[in-house]
Design goal:
With 185 residues, the chain is mainly alpha-helical. The chain has four helices and two strands. It has a two-stranded antiparallel ribbon.
Length: 185
């Protein structure tokens, strides 16, 4: 603790709540599971941030082109790339490829796991496994789009003398701010 430029230190001992009776193995299982979900969420947030950034840049390129008939092929290529990314930003449910929707579900599972002094439930593990498989499919689709469709569009943009669509660096991507009300009673 620092107060008026002076630092104070004291030891801190963390102990279990004496009202909670749970095996250490169950607590460790919850911690390991929470970390696994966290790693998956990080991949989802990164992918979603990249997709959102690319789509914003596509919008900007379309505005630059406008209705210029000389750039119809380029406008069509931009539209085709946006359409390829649509499954990554729309839809919901257990089989969705929408990275944002998966983030919401995985965040809910993580919150449940981290908020309980017990081992993860079978339902939590099953839900995570289902969404983790979808995450893999979505990120595989995104990698294919990045490697093929985006690369092809960038060649067309470059040939037209326009700025290419750039992938943001990992440090430039941040999870969206909470949209929940900050009003306090």
């Amino acid at each position: 603790l620092k107060v008026d430029g002076k630092a104070y230190r004291a030891p801190l001992v963390v102990t279990m709540d004496p009202r909670v009776q749970v095996d250490r193995a169950d607590l460790m299982a919850g911690l390991v599971f929470a970390r696994e979900i966290g790693a998956t969420l990080q991949r989802v947030w990164q992918g979603d941030g990249e997709v959102q950034s690319v789509r914003e840049q596509l919008d900007a390129r379309e505005k630059t082109i406008g209705n210029d008939t000389a750039h119809k092929a380029l406008r069509d290529a931009i539209g085709a790339l946006r359409a390829r990314t649509d499954p990554l930003v729309s839809g919901s449910g257990e089989t969705t490829t929408n990275l944002g929707a998966m983030s919401d579900v995985l965040t809910g599972i993580a919150t449940d796991v981290e908020g309980a002094d017990r081992a993860p439930t079978d339902g939590q593990r099953q839900a995570y496994a289902e969404f983790k498989a979808n995450v893999g499919k979505s990120l595989q689709l995104w990698q294919a789009i990045r490697g093929n469709d985006l690369a092809q569009l960038n060649r067309q943009l470059h040939a037209a003398g326009m700025q290419e669509v750039r992938m943001p660096a990992p440090g430039q991507i941040h999870a969206d701010e909470s949209t929940e009300s900050q009003n306090r009673p």
